Amino acid sequence: MTVLRSTQFGLLIIVLIQMLGCSTGRLLSPPPQSELIAIEFSDESFSTLLDMPMGVYQVPNSQVIISGHQKVRSIESIIGPSGFNLKTSESTDSEDSAIHILKLNLTESAKYMARDLIADPVLSQSYTYQPVKDAPYLDVRTRVILTFENKELSKPYVVLHAALKAGGTNFIIWQGRYIASSGPAKPVTGEDSWMSDDGEALHANISKNLKTAIEVMMRDVASPYPRRAKQLVSVTGHYPYVGPQLQIVGYHLDEDANSLTFLPKLGSSMVFAGVNVVDKETVSFRPALTDDPVYTNLGAE
After folding, report:
1. What residue ranges of the chain have pLDDT lower than 70?
2. What is the pLDDT of residue 96?
3. pLDDT at res. 11
4. Whole-prediction pTM
5. What's the CA gap between 243 and 263, in Å, rounded?
């Protein structure tokens, strides 16, 4: 067997195992790489078939997706019947201001953040600024999921879709999601809302969580967090795309004074499956019990 055929066969085995993993709710760790990995951020859209639930609203010319509103209010009540009508003040410029606030593209910011992180002494051993011919690379897409928890309160989640690809090709060796959120939910409009002060709170929250998601992704791909069956945790809180609270069992990956990093024990067909970094003040969590269901919708009637 030639080296090329051997490599292709090995990649095929990885993909088949990945498919089996998804069908059983088991998400695999990123496979080890012997060469430096380049990171490429793309403006490519998320798949409406595979990456998003029904009824979400994609803000035009933006990487912001609105969800969770489907059962509590119409999209027209959020953005207006004929475009953006999110009023941040009584001024006549409020409509244009809201358009500006929600028209976000994270790609360039993500590139700069990743470049800064590559300078880290540890990460620099696994990543490179420039793609190397035939070396693997991470193809990453970014989005903000502004998710309504109820009729009034919403929260942004930064979601990265990362695909580790064989050098010089679009062949996917491994893929996964990284999701970061922090802080409490807020109203979309009004005083102390996401739209107030020209979206200052919204943009600051997104920037913070974009950096968090990128760093966790880079560390996980370079040296995967252990997915140990004996370290399962049950986490109750809100998740991207979904309005009601959920109780999810997943692998405890990491924890510090402020945040918990865990991987829901769910197949990738679930749109919030992936490595989640959450603010410990916004969730409740405990060691999982043997009889805990993996997924419980606490808002189900």
Report:
1. 1-27, 48-53, 69-99, 300-301
2. 47
3. 41
4. 0.85
5. 20
